[in-house]
């Protein structure tokens, strides 16, 4: 009898040019293209086993059964794409410390897209996998690929997918996640995006500016200009957070310590060590730097934050099947 079972691993990513707003809620088409770095330390392992006797999907996260309508909806999208009708038992383990404040939805839906299509004996190319992952969570579109990836905004389901960006550089880039708070976020990314698109008076300027940032950060990557690269990423993150401050009702993801962390990074930079920060839909601050400067920057940060609140990651691989 044929085996309808597969397991996959995908790593999470940190956006350096942010996705913050949808032009199509159903298809998850973004308002602007984005760019990220996939990270080695944080990943999700997922196994999918189809069983024709099941009448609905069963989902287990870190060993506990969960009712998750988003996962069920996503499995319906997978079934539409594979033409394989059965329901499945899905088992996911997150190796993304919830405390890290890194979106586990990126690694989760990238791993599920690969495992669920492979278990249906479909070998889709990475572009198609990226399009399927997109339907689970926007940031998952990029986690199909390793290293730097760009999500092309597209105009429809076919044209909105990520692609890898392969640049030669000797930066040996690292990301330090400064863990500030591990509580669930007050405003989900889905809610936050909807509010800013509908109400921020700056939204149309954001789109223009994010498009310019995307173009310029790719030039900085191609010309190995780390300073320019970091400055664009930092400024892009701050513009995203400015949208939240200008929305109605306004909201923000800053904790007092997030602001302190940003100021400390600016001080370390003034000492001559290039490092730049970014933040997503939560209070934790992520710092990008070169490996050559990592130990000095970590030592500086340890003057202000406990060592076990500083998590270091390097570039990670794309989604892959597990034996
Ligand atoms: O993929 P979502 O729906 O969790 O949204 C992610 C949004 C940000 O992390 C803030 C930005 C991004 O591009 O990943």
Structure notes:
With 323 residues, the protein is of the alpha+beta class. It folds into two domains: 5-168, Ribosomal Protein S5, domain 2, CATH 3.30.230.10; 173-313, 2-Layer Sandwich (Alpha-Beta Plaits). 37% of the residues lie in helices and 26% in strands. It is built from nine helices and 14 strands. The strands form three sheets. Strands 1, 4, 5, 6, 7, 8, 9 and 14 form an eight-stranded mixed β-sheet that branches. A hairpin with an 8-residue loop joins strand 8 (148-152) and strand 9. Helix 2 crosses helix 3 and helix 6 (203-222) runs antiparallel to helix 7. It is globular, with a radius of gyration of 19 Å. It binds (3R)-3-hydroxy-3-methyl-5-(phosphonooxy)pentanoic acid (PMV). (3R)-3-hydroxy-3-methyl-5-(phosphonooxy)pentanoic acid (PMV) binds at residues 15, 18-20, 34, 103, 105, 137-139, 189-190, 280-281. Its EC number is 4.1.1.33.
